[in-house]
Specification:
By secondary structure, this protein is an all-alpha fold. The N and C termini lie far apart (66 Å).
Length: 166
């Protein structure tokens, strides 16, 4: 008998939920409901997603460059591959656009993208030389990292380390 009452209560509960969850018509003049359908984008999440797109863009093309920089005695073929890899990263970075939602951080982020692309272009050119010096390119990279950090700090987020992500 207890099972019967539990079963009956479960059916009544299910019917009650189904009745309460029926779609309600939206009044044409109800703008509060229309605005609630699409909440405002959080600048922190937009900034983080954009930052991750920078990281992913670089990581997709810099494998040969990383291999060259990590090798104790790189071969000439590795050096050529690293130069090509750096040029590809620079080209890919130039294709990124700062989202419109980040209008307050746009100047810093565009300058950072420009510096990053320039850094990789500098590496590509240096790797064509007999004895490449990558320090100026690394300094340009650090400048870009500072600009990205400034954008993060403007929305009360901690500075990321782009170099560690790559």
């Amino acid at each position: 008998m207890k099972k019967f009452w539990i079963f009956l209560a479960a059916i009544a509960f299910a019917l009650g939920l189904a009745a309460c969850s029926a779609d309600k018509e939206v009044q044409p003049g109800n703008t509060a409901t229309e605005k609630a359908e699409k909440p405002a984008e959080n600048p922190k999440s937009t900034l983080f997603r954009f930052y991750m797109s920078i990281v992913n863009t670089i990581n997709q093309a810099d494998a040969d460059l990383n291999a060259y920089e990590g090798a104790e005695e790189p071969t000439p073929d590795e050096k050529v591959a690293a130069s090509t890899s750096a040029a590809a990263v620079a080209s890919d970075l130039q294709g990124l656009e700062v989202p419109a939602e980040l209008k307050d951080q746009k100047a810093d982020l565009e300058a950072a993208l420009k510096d990053l692309a320039e850094s990789y272009n500098m590496k590509a050119e240096e790797l064509k030389k007999d004895t490449p010096a990558l320090d100026p390119a690394n300094e340009k990279f650090a400048q870009a990292e500072e600009k990205i950090g400034a954008a993060f700090e403007s929305v009360d987020m901690k500075k990321p380390s782009l170099a560690k992500e790559l």
